[in-house]
Design brief:
Elements: H1 2-18, H2 24-32, H3 35-63, H4 72-94, H5 107-110, H6 117-129, H7 132-146, H8 152-166, H9 168-180, H10 185-219
Helix pairs in contact: 1-7, 1-8, 1-10, 2-3, 2-10, 3-6, 3-7, 3-8, 4-7, 4-10, 7-8
Length: 222
């Protein structure tokens, strides 16, 4: 169990930084004062990790149940996922100065201004499951868990810990607001501006590092 948690933890920490630009959404919801909508979004976001991560673990267990070492196909899949993340990193880095979305909020994100709790839950879920970058990151964590243990209980516990750690970044505005109250609004607003200016560079660097870690870690078993 602990070895599975340790295997996925570096990826979870990387996800905190790779998803930093998404905290614009909880920042918007905080300024609206719609705490139930914010909670819906956070629950949907966490549910995306559990559902997608659980599906990856189930697939890995069905294809290669109870073997003594990571299956070769799983190792090669992790290599390809890692290389895919490195490729996405390069694409994002090359587009960082020409992509206007780095300085302006995308239209779909502006829609959060009028979203309700069920829709916010769906938005949080979709951001994890249907966004290629986020889906690859979650799959990387799940495969890291599957490659270490085939115990269903250990996998479930490791996946829950992986989800909690990965969601720390997106939940940080809400946690800070609970701690500091209105005093948290100004620093959070400054953070929002910083991320709007630098989100492409942040994402490129972090997912590049995660991709390299996933690739090298998988290749060490081949």
């Amino acid at each position: 169990m602990f070895s599975a948690i340790a295997a996925a933890l570096p990826i979870a920490i990387g996800i905190i930084f790779a998803t930093l630009p998404i905290i614009t959404i909880p920042l918007i919801l905080l300024t609206r004062g719609e705490m139930m909508v914010l909670k819906g979004f956070l629950l949907g976001y966490a549910a995306g990790f559990i559902v997608l991560g659980g599906a990856v673990l189930f697939m890995a267990d069905v294809i290669a149940p109870g073997v003594d070492r990571p299956a070769t196909w799983m190792l090669w899949l992790r290599v390809f996922i890692g290389l895919g993340l490195v490729f996405l990193s390069g694409v994002k880095w090359n587009a960082r100065n020409s992509d206007d979305e780095d300085a302006a909020m995308p239209g779909w994100m502006k829609a959060i201004e009028s979203v309700n709790s069920p829709a916010a839950f769906g938005l949080g879920f979709v951001i994890v499951v249907l966004n290629p970058k986020n889906a690859l990151l979650v799959a990387s964590g799940a495969f890291a868990i599957a490659s270490v243990t085939y115990s269903p209980l250990a996998q479930i516990v490791a996946l829950v810990v992986f989800t909690i750690v990965s969601c720390v970044g997106i939940a940080a505005p809400w946690l800070l607001f609970l701690w500091k109250g209105e005093a948290a609004v100004e620093p959070l607003d400054r953070l929002k501006g910083f991320l709007a200016r630098n989100n492409a560079a942040i994402i490129a660097i972090v997912i590049g590092l995660i991709g390299a870690f996933v690739t090298l870690n998988a290749m060490s078993y081949l």
